[in-house]
Design a protein that fits this description.
The chain is mainly alpha-helical. It has 2 domains: 1-78; 80-133, no CATH class. The protein is built from 5 helices and no strands. Helix 1 crosses helix 2, helix 3 (55-76) runs antiparallel to helix 4 (81-103) and helix 4 (81-103) packs antiparallel against helix 5. Bound molecules: protoporphyrin IX containing FE (2 copies). One protoporphyrin IX containing FE (HEM) is lined by residues 13, 16-17, 19-20, 23, 52, 55-56, 59-60, 62, 93-94, 97-98, 100-101, 106, 112, 115-116, 119.
Length: 133
Amino acid sequence: MGEFLGWCIVVSYVLAMLNFAFKRINKYYISKLPNKQENIKKQFRVVMKPFIKYHRYFGLLAILALTIHFIYIYLNYWISPTGVIAAITMVILVSLGLFGYLIKKGKKGTWLVLHRVVAFLMIFAIALHIARR
Ligand code: HEM
Ligand code: HEM
């Protein structure tokens, strides 16, 4: 169960990261396709849209899964130091997202640069935690 909940966090994280992946693929590849491939462009954007729209909910899902993973493991085993590092990173990441969304109303700024940097640091935090639970 502890492992399952851990993977739920990872899946939510990946779903949130697809926001970034889709946008970049769209900008550097899809939008540069010739106009006669209009159909591919349209289809790509249809698939991309929900990932942009629900980005914040995937992030909140990750925090929810993290809370349950933490409580379950805290009650059953011990406190994993690498888990705590990953959790702190995730809390900073989601706080930055909430700040940008609620206070800055999604306008670009330092918060977004930090939000993006921490999102990528999260990969190392997760890898470390899985390698040394
Ligand atoms: C963003 C934060 C976290 C992520 C993404 C995460 C992810 C994961 C994943 C994917 C696993 C399963 C690894 C496997 O299948 O080999 C796992 C296991 C585990 N995690 Fe986390 N975790 C996080 C936070 C935490 C925290 C805060 C704690 C400690 C309180 C913790 C303690 C553990 C423990 C003890 C296991 C082993 C569970 C078992 O063997 O049943 N994790 N975690
Ligand atoms: C696991 C959690 C999260 C991850 C991995 C994540 C990752 C990212 C990344 C990489 C970007 C940059 C996109 C780009 O460069 O185009 C971004 C943008 C953004 N994030 Fe997050 N984020 C998370 C959670 C959240 C949450 C919880 C919120 C708000 C409640 C949020 C709000 C935003 C906003 C407003 C933007 C800028 C607009 C946009 O690209 O949609 N994020 N996020």
